[in-house]
Amino acid sequence: MKQVEDIRVVPLEAGLGPENPPCPACGEPLFGWIGSKEGLAGPVRRCESCGLGVVGSSGGFEEALREFDLLRTGEAVQIANRAGFACSLGSAGWFGLQPQGRYLFTLEAVRRLIARRDQVVKSRRWQPAASLAATWQTLLNSVTFGHNVALGALDKAPAIPAGQPWQRRIDALASVVLAIPAFLVALPVELAGAAFGRGSVYALSTELL
Ligand SMILES: [Zn+2]
After folding, report:
1. How far is the CA of 57 from the centre of ligand 1 (A)?
2. 155 C-alpha vs ligand 1 centroid, how far in Å?
3. What is the pTM for the complete model shown?
4. CA of 75 to the centre of ligand 1 (A)
5. 136 pLDDT exceeds 70?
6. In angstroms, what is the span from residue 30 Cα to ligand 1's centroid?
7. Which candidate, 74, 202, 183, 76, places its Cα nearest to that of 128?
8. From ligand 1's centre to the CA of 10, what distance in Å?
9. pLDDT of 62 over the 90 cut
10. Which of 28, 94, 104, 129 could form a disulfide with 49 if both were Cys (CB 3.0 to 4.6 A apart)?
11. Per-residue pLDDT reduced to its tens digit, 72-103
12. Ligand 1 centroid to 83 CA: how many Å?
C-alpha cells in the first residue's frame, strides 16, 4: 500500500526574526548568504523570494529606493543583477559586491521595490559590454587576493586591493596572464545569461502607473 507522507509546509514569513529581518523590497525574511568580507559594511543576506541582497543591516524600503535612485543616469537605471549567472558562479567573488553598494538588486527585487511608489519597469535592456566586463572580473576574482582589481586598474569599478604588496603583485600578474582565458569563459556564460534573462548588467527604464 502506498504511504502518503505528511509534509508540513512552512511559509517563508515563519522565518522572520532578529537574524532574518524582512526584505526591504518584498517583506519576506532575509537569510545569510556571505560572511564578512574585506571592504564591505558587514555580512550579506539575501531574499529567497525576490533575490535582493543586503550588505550589513537592512535599512528598509526607503533606503533601498534611495540607493536605487542613485544608480540612475539619464533615462535609465543600471543595475548589476544579483540573480545573474555570473553571481551564481562567483558568489563572494561576484563583481557586484562593492564597497559603496548596500543593496544588491535583481529585476524582480526592483519590480517589487518600485511598486511601493506606484512605478513599474517599462523596459529592460541587457548591457553587453558592461555585462561581459562584470563576468570577466568575477572569474578573475576567484584567483586574486583582492577584489575587482583589473576593472579597478582600468578605472571601471572600485577595487578592494589585497593587504600585502606581494599579494598585489601576484594579483596584477594573474589579471594579465588570465585575462584572455577568463574572457573566453565569460563570453558563453554571459550569452547564456542574456538568453535566459540572467545577464550581469541591465539598464531599466521605469514609469509611474
Ligand atoms: Zn525580497
Report:
1. 15
2. 32
3. 0.90
4. 25
5. yes
6. 7
7. 202
8. 17
9. yes
10. 28
11. 999 999 999 999 999 999 999 999 999 989 99
12. 12
pLDDT in tens, 106-116: 999 999 999 99
How is residue 185 written as a grid cell?
569563459
Assigned C-alpha cell, 9: 509546509
pLDDT at residue 64, rounded to an integer: 97
What separation in Å is there between the alpha carbon of 11 and the centre of ligand 1? 14
Q: What is the CA(168)–ligand 1 centre distance, in A?
A: 37
- Residue linked to cell 537605471: 77
